[in-house]
Amino acid sequence: MNKPDDLQELALRLSAFADVLNQHAMRLVQETGQSTQALRETATAFSTQAQQISRELVHSVGMQAREAIERHAADGMRHSGERLHEATKRVESSAGALQRELQRLGAAQNSLVWKSGLGLLLGSLLAVGGSGYFAWKSHQAVKQAEFPVGIVEAMRTGALTRCDGSICARIGDKPRRFGDKGQYAEVK
């Protein structure tokens, strides 16, 4: 198998996985936000209905038994109003807790997106680094293979040959010299 292709495929799969995680996190945040909004609307409706019921109750009691209201209803209504007020506060507190949870989930989702992006970046860098390393190694192998190919070609053309167990080279009449003291001559 080709390792750079494997790394690229791994990077693509990691990217797709991060996209799926991001979509799920976004959907969760959206659903939590919708639930919080629905709870607020319910709390508001409950408070409005409670106030309406309270007004209707006061009016009805006043019409039916004015005398009983003057003696006993004031305390009962105050107690009911306090209980209703406490219930409204609890509902509002729950809505606030849901809002804080929504913010926490949003922060967690942002953290997940950043971590996923960083993971993808690191994976991509590893893939690019691995590909670069394999390309460099391949280039080195090709350069190393060029020298033996040159020797084989020189032997094929007769520029290099064997002379009494040693290697001899045909250098021509006026060979070009190399090295700092001219100790090397070009083989023709």
Quick synopsis:
82% of the residues lie in helices and 6% in strands.
What would you note in describing this structure?
The protein is mainly alpha-helical and 188 residues long. It has a single domain (3-141), classed as Helix Hairpins, CATH 1.10.287. It has two helices and four strands, in the order H-H-E-E-E-E. The chain has a two-stranded antiparallel ribbon. A two-stranded antiparallel ribbon has the order 3-4. Strand 1 (160-163) and strand 2 (166-169) form a beta hairpin. The longest helix has 92 residues, at 66-157. It is rod-shaped and about 140 Å long. The two termini are 42 Å apart.
The assigned CATH architecture is: Orthogonal Bundle
The secondary-structure class comes to: mainly alpha
Task: Give the strand order, joined by hyphens, for the main sheet.
Answer: 1-2
Show unreliable segments.
none
Rg, alpha carbons: 43 Å
Counting DSSP H or I runs of 4 or more residues, the number of helices is: 2
Largest sheet composition: 2 strands, antiparallel
Cα separation of the termini: 42 Å
- CATH fold group: Helix Hairpins
| Order of SSEs | HHEEEE
Mean of residue pLDDT?
81
Number of β-strand runs? 4
Please tag this protein with its features.
single chain, 188 residues, mainly alpha, Helix Hairpins, two-stranded antiparallel ribbon, two-stranded antiparallel sheet
List the topology elements:
Layout: H1 3-64, H2 66-157, E1 160-163, E2 166-169, E3 177-178, E4 184-185
Antiparallel strand pairs: 1-2, 3-4
